[in-house]
Amino acid sequence: MIRQEARKKAEALVAQMTLEERAGQLRYQAPAIKRLGIPAYNWWNEALHGVARAGKATVFPQAIAMAASFDAQLIHDAAEVISLEGRAKYNAQSKYGDRDIFKGLTFWSPNVNIFRDPRWGRGHETYGEDPYLTAAMGVAFVRGLQGDGEHLRAAACAKHFAVHSGPEGERHRFDARVFPKDLTETYLPAFEALVREAKVEAVMGAYNRVNGEPACASTVLQEKLRGEWGFQGHFVSDCWAIKDFFTGHGVCENAVDAAALAINRGCDLNCGDTYHFILEAHEQGLVSQETITEACVRLFTTRYMLGLLDGSEYDALPLTVVEAPEHLKLAKKAALESAVLLKNDGLLPLDKSKLRTVAVIGPNADSRDALVGNYNGYASRYWTVQEGILDYLEDSGVRVLTAMGCHLFRDRYEPLSQPGDRYAEAAAVCEASDAVILCVGLDWTLEGEEGDASNSYASGDKNDLLLPEVQRKLMEVAAKSGKPVVLCLLAGSDIDLSYARENFDAILDLWYPGSQGGRAAAELLFGDVSPSGKLPITFYETLEELPDFEDYSMENRTYRYMKRRAQYPFGFGLTYGDVRVTEAELIDTNGTLTVRAWVENRGALDTGDVVEAYVKCENSPFSPPNPSLCGFCRVFLKAGERKRIEFPLSPTALTVVNDQGERTAAGGRFTFYIGTSQPDEKSRELTGYEPVRVPYSI
Q1: How far apart (Å, rounded) are the C-alpha atoms in residues 146 and 134?
Q2: Given CA atoms 602, 603, 607, 611 in this order, what sign does their dihedral have?
Q3: Residue 568 in contact with residue 678, Cβ under 8 Å?
Q4: Across-strand partners of 613?
Q5: Which of 4, 358, 530, 655 has the least CB density, counted as fewest CB within 10 Å?
Q6: How far apart are CA 142 and CA 144, in angstroms?
Q7: What is the pLDDT of residue 458?
Q8: For residue 292, what pLDDT is reported?
Q9: Which residue numbers in the chain have pLDDT < 50?
């Protein structure tokens, strides 16, 4: 349904409401208005990587893992599955009168904040540190979720607008100070793309202030959103963020003032309870009837666009859509494409014909929490890494020995035992095996959102890049065994892998791979499928090179501005093949740049890979110091195959952002780099070759 038609219906319906009824609809728990035939509706639902918190659903890999696929079509298809399952669940539950939280069709996803600092606990909810990749993945997600039918299949929400990435413990009172250049160049592009290109239906404000203004009541941000970008959907506060106006930020005296400030500055919907005071604010002359009415109309426009009040083409979707075989197959594909091979000294792929016994050890080997990340649904069946390998080798004659080795973070597993109570078992299992698969990492209890994660010492954030001490000791146990070791990392962020780099034969980053993660891990480890993911974040050597966590300047942050060599760079990832770009050129079609490249797999194994394009303006002082991602394309090549590919470059590839935050065309000399990694020194060292360099002038 086109917006104009939906808005007309909304205006007509809202006109029949009293002012009290209109104000009541501005809270996330919107009550029924029986006399008008309007059912209750709860706006709060989540779908970060599957329908979340509402029973069974297909559980895809966490968002950071999906970003590692560098596969926008995959993201689109996964979001389409999510919306279909969300519709099916809504149909079934509303039939029984269940209109509870997490049961609606307004999904507060995706999270397109920039993962600017590896300490941020919620970074694994994002698509990484790069604004172009984040925008591409976010646009694909929104388009897949909302669909292109007569009605929205579901409503997506871009969050958290707009300068928000920790610290978690300070978010209710923190002021993120950001330079105009960084705002335009780094923090806003993904939001702008979701509004302009994907027509995202909702935008959620952040908890913190941005340059002094609460993000949920920012004149600067609203002017960008509704003025410059033409956003026509509804704006929702983060949950209880408006309460922070007077309890944390100190910009308001009380709830009445906070409610007035938020709605007057464009916040239509309150996740929280502060809008209970909207009518009191109106009575005090702080909020006009027209402002309340406009917010209500915007919300009912969304409900009409979803077909929630007069029916839609999705009303007959049956519950059997949920976890359909083709959906689970897609979740497994996502896990396969997301895995990033960081090191391989020839151990992988494992050859089961040459193995008698394999050890699978580590606290994340048989952990469901390590599969799902946060904001997750609940699968009917999970395959942990251990279960996946046991199933894979069931009839092969290869024995699988398992041991937890240690607790995820405590110094002992059994409370009555001595510290290190599982190391001896792990050592014995390693000794009895021909190869060791060591599964370490974190889970949502150690890195996540304030209030959700168990590491209360950091409110969900990380204090450092190290694995918990007990896991570091387990790594030493595995290394001392003298057996070949592949480390499988299950985590959502940068982890210091210096010990693994020096002591183990292979490192495979599985992220939080979803319910099918263990099946995918087995196929990757034993070579049925080659790893092909790329890092969407930088793995730093230390935190010493980074600014303070609270510093929102991009100086020395992310691959675009860092000065030191990375431990593992953004865009890096090995395969079992040997894919190289041998030639590349730029095609200019009416001002639109396209890469034409010739790619070949010189290896002995078939593999997927990602061709990446980076650009550097050589004669502008406003160009980031390092080349920036401006295009990418997934490819699959059989051993020895050569093919030509073409893919578009970002429309902003030939622009720069000045210190005033103005994006302008950058005349002069550019250098484009086309390859399977960044053009940085560390990537060249790790891959053994460098991208093709293509000069370009305008």
Answers
A1: 18
A2: negative
A3: no
A4: 631, 674
A5: 4
A6: 5
A7: 79
A8: 98
A9: none
Q: Domain range for residue 300?
A: 3-45+76-315
Q: Which residues contact 154 (CB under 8 A, 6 or more apart)?
A: 47, 82, 83, 86, 87, 105, 106, 107, 145, 146, 147, 306
Q: What CATH code is carried by the domain that includes residue 691?
A: 2.60.40.10
CA–CA distance from 626 to each of 186, 561, 570, 652 (Å)?
Answer: 14, 6, 12, 16
- For residue 97, what pLDDT is reported? 94
* C-alpha separations of 545 from 117, 445, 548, 549, 684 in Å: 11, 27, 10, 12, 21
**Model pLDDT, residue 236:** 98
Cα(259)–Cα(273) distance, rounded to whole angstroms? Answer: 9
Q: Could you confirm whether 148 is annotated as catalytic? A: no
CATH value at residue 407: 3.40.50.1700
**Spatial CB neighbours of 22, under 8 Å, sequence gap ≥ 6:** 14, 292, 293, 296
How do 506-509 and 340-344 pair as beta strands? antiparallel
Query: Within this chain, do residues 335 and 270 fall inside the same structural domain, yes or no?
Result: no
Name the β-bridge partners of 647: 595
C-alpha neighbours within 13 Å on the C-beta side of residue 605: 17
DSSP codes of every residue in 473-540: HHHHHHHHT-S-EEEEEE-SS----HHHHHH-SEEEE--S--TTHHHHHHHHHTTSS------SS-B-
Query: Domain check: are 257 and 365 in the same one?
Result: no
Residue 561 lies in a domain: no
Instruction: Look up residue 88 and give its two tokens.
Output: 């099916």
What's the number of domains the chain is made of? 3
Cα 139 to its chain centre, rounded Å, is 12
Same-domain check for residues 346 and 280: no
Distances in whole angstroms, Cα of residue 136 to Cα of each of 110, 140, 362 = 12, 6, 35
Beta strand 399-403 with 607-617 is: unpaired
Q: Which residues contact 564 (CB under 8 A, 6 or more apart)?
A: 540, 541, 545
The domain boundary residue, chosen from 315, 340, 358: 315
- Which of 181, 321, 309 lies closest to 621 in space, CA to CA? 181
> Both 86 and 159 in a single domain?
yes
Residues 383 and 269 in one domain: no
Q: Which of 117, 130, 238, 257 is catalytic?
A: 238
Integer Cα distance of 245 and 209 in angstroms? 9
pLDDT at 79: 99
Same domain, 531 and 592: no
The answer to the question of residue 357 being in a domain is yes
Among 697, 571, 595, CA closest to 648: 595
The predicted pLDDT at position 244 comes to 98
Q: What is the per-residue pLDDT across 277-319, written as a single tens digit (0 to 9) for each?
A: 999 999 999 999 999 999 999 999 999 999 999 999 999 999 9
Cα 470 to Cα 139, 345, 406, 413, 542, distances in angstroms: 40, 26, 6, 10, 20
Residues 639 and 492 in one domain: no
**523-575 pLDDT, tens digit each:** 999 999 999 999 999 999 999 999 999 999 999 999 999 999 999 999 999 99
User: Does 296 lie in the same domain as 444?
Assistant: no
Tokens of 520: 């995918």
CA 497/CA 499 separation, integer angstroms? 6
Q: Identify the pLDDT of residue 591.
A: 79
**CA 81 to chain centroid:** 17
